[in-house]
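Customer escalation, tier 2.

The customer says the design service returned an amino acid string that "doesn't look like it belongs to this structure." They asked us to rerun it and document both sides in this ticket. The original structure tokens are below, unchanged.
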């Protein structure tokens, strides 16, 4: 940054230095009175500017610590300590530059994500030649080549036999990920040492990395609750400082003692330490694959007392495996494969997590899927569509019964779940699935309890028997089954132990995520609606990150408050010493800079912390 850039960004710093230079020259020329006038007038001007901002804040209901800074400047001018007044002005002005530096450090992870956003792609044309295009020009179905060490431009599937990718920017996992042909590739991951071919499955704006960038930009632009946090301490700190200054003045009979006390009580620790800590916490979360949308969420996470989990795709892996196809006695469909093919065809455009399992089950049997018409999704209930000129409905028993008439409940063993299918107004059969519990679910619940969460419960739209089975495996005793989206919202609103953190992943979870104090979306494979409604988005498919988010929130708030208290403690100690006349005003102003530095360095500790317990999550048989 050039001189003109510095002048534009920090005009008060350079102006104060220029005035200080003029004062120094006047003193060297023996013009002490003129030097005092120049220094005092400029410091008074700076105090007026600061005072205007203080009055504006007061009208907005924010009683901050600017009154302390202004009083320090005015008192030093009144007692003739104009050089100390200039140092205080310089210290307050340089606080912005110091905050920018610390903020840059704290936002490093968020900034790195933005800088690494893919810009170009290499697309194969009809002749097999490569053409460089902008990432925005990539369309689903395009064949792309990703060269060694390049960023995967869009979501896709691997066409090469194998590949190794660094997915740490997305998932937080430091170890390289090995993929085989047909495996899904995430945009934003970095290719290894060999060029690979891939097929784009999404446009740039719909790809994983674009979603991360959008969330990161939202997080970077948000404001941490620093005003509220700092103001809790501002008024009592200001009162104590002024009281100590008055006592020192009255006891000693020396007016300059009042100024000397207030000089070492400048408010930079309250103004800078908290925002640096919150930005550091958000950056640390991003490094762990957790996007926290605003600083206020970190403060709420630190106080969470109740955690509510969705079942499918959250406590369970959300990829149920097909165990059986049972045809109905109506003989509406002749074979099991035909029933599965019709169901999978209807589910192709559904956003429900079970839909993907139905489609994958059909494809694994090499069944041909047909294009559905008039497809409509009924949140949490099921799907209706026309497939091969046949009216297909599938989903919950009550939903299918509305079209096909009364249907007997299918007998299920523990842990199984059923998808009922109707064809042309007749009940045609049932698809039996089993969705295993995540292996780190129990460890996650244990960790949340250790972090002070008093109550954990599960809400699900599934049948009571299935819900009870998963709850028993997870160690949950409070289970609500058969819930519709509005039921979930009402249950969450009625809970007494607050704040509440809701963890979910599907489109039907969006309302309840918004209703909770903190909504956590398992965004790695969840819906866009859930991610937009949530306050926290977990970009990696790891339930344990919900506990990591709570831990980061707690540690961030602890460091922010600790940094404030370090500043207050050092300032109070210096005020007491200054009250005895042992710290001249000029020396006190310089010493206070060291207090600022100590509090900011401590606040930057929020960038670090104990690594999250991200336990491997492999299928667990129920």
């Amino acid at each position: 940054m050039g001189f003109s850039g510095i002048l534009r960004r920090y005009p008060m710093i350079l102006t104060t230095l220029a005035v200080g230079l003029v004062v120094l020259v006047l003193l060297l020329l023996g013009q002490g009175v003129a030097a005092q006038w120049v220094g005092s007038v400029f410091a008074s001007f700076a105090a007026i500017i600061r005072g205007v901002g203080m009055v504006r804040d007061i009208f907005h209901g924010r009683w901050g610590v600017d009154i302390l800074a202004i009083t320090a400047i005015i008192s030093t001018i009144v007692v003739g300590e104009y050089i100390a007044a200039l140092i205080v002005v310089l210290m307050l002005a340089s606080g912005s530059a110091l905050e920018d530096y610390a903020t840059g450090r704290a936002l490093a992870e968020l900034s790195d994500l933005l800088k690494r956003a893919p810009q170009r792609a290499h697309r194969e044309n009809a002749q097999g030649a490569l053409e460089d295009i902008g990432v925005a020009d990539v369309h689903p179905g395009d064949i792309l080549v990703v060269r060694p060490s390049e960023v995967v431009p869009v979501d896709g599937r691997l066409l090469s036999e194998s590949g190794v990718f660094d997915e740490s920017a997305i998932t937080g996992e430091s170890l390289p990920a090995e993929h085989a042909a047909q495996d899904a590739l995430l945009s934003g991951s970095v290719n290894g040492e060999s060029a690979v071919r891939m097929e784009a499955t999404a446009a740039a704006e719909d790809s994983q990395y674009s979603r991360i960038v959008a969330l990161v930009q939202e997080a970077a632009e948000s404001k941490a609750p620093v005003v509220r946090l700092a103001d809790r301490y501002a008024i009592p700190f200001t009162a104590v400082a002024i009281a100590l200054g008055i006592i020192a003045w009255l006891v000693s009979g020396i007016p300059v003692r009042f100024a000397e006390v207030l000089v070492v009580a400048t408010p930079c620790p309250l103004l800078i330490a908290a925002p640096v800590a919150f930005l550091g916490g958000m950056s640390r979360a991003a490094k762990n694959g957790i996007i926290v949308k605003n600083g206020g969420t970190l403060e709420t996470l630190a106080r969470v007392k109740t955690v509510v989990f969705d079942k499918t795709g959250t406590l369970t892996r959300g990829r149920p495996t097909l165990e059986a196809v049972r045809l109905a006695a109506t003989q509406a469909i002749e074979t099991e494969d035909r029933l599965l093919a019709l169901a999978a065809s209807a589910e192709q455009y559904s956003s429900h997590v079970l839909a993907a399992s139905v489609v994958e089950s059909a494809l694994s049997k090499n069944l041909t899927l047909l294009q559905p018409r008039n497809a409509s999704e009924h949140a949490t209930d099921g799907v209706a569509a026309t497939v091969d000129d046949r009216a297909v409905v599938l989903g919950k028993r009550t939903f299918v019964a509305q079209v096909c008439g009364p249907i007997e409940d299918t007998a299920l063993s523990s842990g199984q779940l059923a998808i009922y299918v109707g064809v042309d107004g007749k009940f045609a059969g049932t698809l039996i699935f089993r969705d295993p519990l995540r292996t780190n679910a129990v460890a996650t619940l244990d960790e949340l309890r250790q972090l002070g969460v008093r109550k954990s419960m599960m809400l699900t739209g599934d049948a009571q028997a299935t819900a009870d089975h998963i709850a028993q495996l997870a160690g949950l005793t409070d289970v609500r089954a058969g819930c519709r989206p509005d039921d979930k919202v009402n249950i969450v609103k009625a809970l007494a132990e607050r704040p509440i953190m809701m963890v979910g992943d599907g489109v039907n979870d969006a309302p309840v995520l918004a209703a909770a104090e903190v909504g956590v979306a398992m965004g790695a494979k969840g819906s866009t609606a859930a991610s937009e409604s949530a306050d926290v988005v977990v970009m990696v498919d790891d339930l344990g990150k919900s506990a990591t988010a709570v831990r980061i929130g707690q540690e961030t708030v602890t460091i922010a408050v600790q940094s404030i208290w370090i500043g207050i403690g050092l300032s109070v100690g210096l005020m007491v010493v200054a009250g005895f006349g042992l710290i001249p005003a000029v020396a006190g102003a310089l010493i206070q800079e060291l207090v600022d530095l100590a509090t900011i360095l401590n606040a930057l500790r929020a960038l670090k912390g104990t690594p999250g317990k991200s336990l491997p999550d492999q299928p667990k048989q129920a």
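Tier 2 assessment: The sequence is consistent with the input. The chain has a mean pLDDT of 82. Residues 325 and 431 are 5 Å apart (CA to CA). Sent an explanation to the customer and offered a walkthrough call.
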